Amino acid sequence: MSNPNAGPVWSDRPVRTIEREELHQKIERGDRFKLVMALNEWAFVAKHIPGSIHFNTPDEMLAALRKDDDIVVYCANPECFASLAVYHRLVDRGYTYVCRYAVGLIDWEDANLPLEGEWVVKR
Questions:
Q1: What are the tens digits of pLDDT across the range 79-93?
Q2: 13, 71, 78 from 107: Cα distances, Å
Q3: pTM of the model
Q4: Terminal Cα-to-Cα distance of the chain (whole angstroms)
Q5: What is the mean pLDDT of the chain?
Q6: Cβ distance 105 to 49 under 8 Å?
Q7: How many CB atoms are located within 10 Å of the residue 20 CB?
Q8: Could you tell me the strand order of the sheet in which 70-74 lies?
Q9: What is each CA distance from 92 to 23, 26, 85, 95, in whole angstroms?
Q10: Apex CA 82: angle with CA 10 and CA 62, to 5°?
């Protein structure tokens, strides 16, 4: 199944990023932001960071997010470009605060931070 959120991956513009600790602190503080998992629905159902949202189509995503929302996008790992494609799709359409958690789900899981989904092993 292809990723319906796929978009341009490369751009001349720098990509704003967020590190695991900063993302974890945002979640712990209860900051108001949108945490968007850029993978397909199957991957989202299997495993995601708590509080994440997922969109099945680019139109659904663009309709649900406001241009002034604080948005963090992520995918599986540094080699996965789904979050980069979503990042550029949003920035190219005028979304003002978007950043990418580039190391993604694998980094989150390696740090033993909470996960949700059907594939999550309960400890």
A1: 999 999 999 999 999
A2: 25, 19, 9
A3: 0.90
A4: 31
A5: 92
A6: yes
A7: 15
A8: 52-53, 34-37, 70-74, 97-101
A9: 23, 25, 10, 7
A10: 90
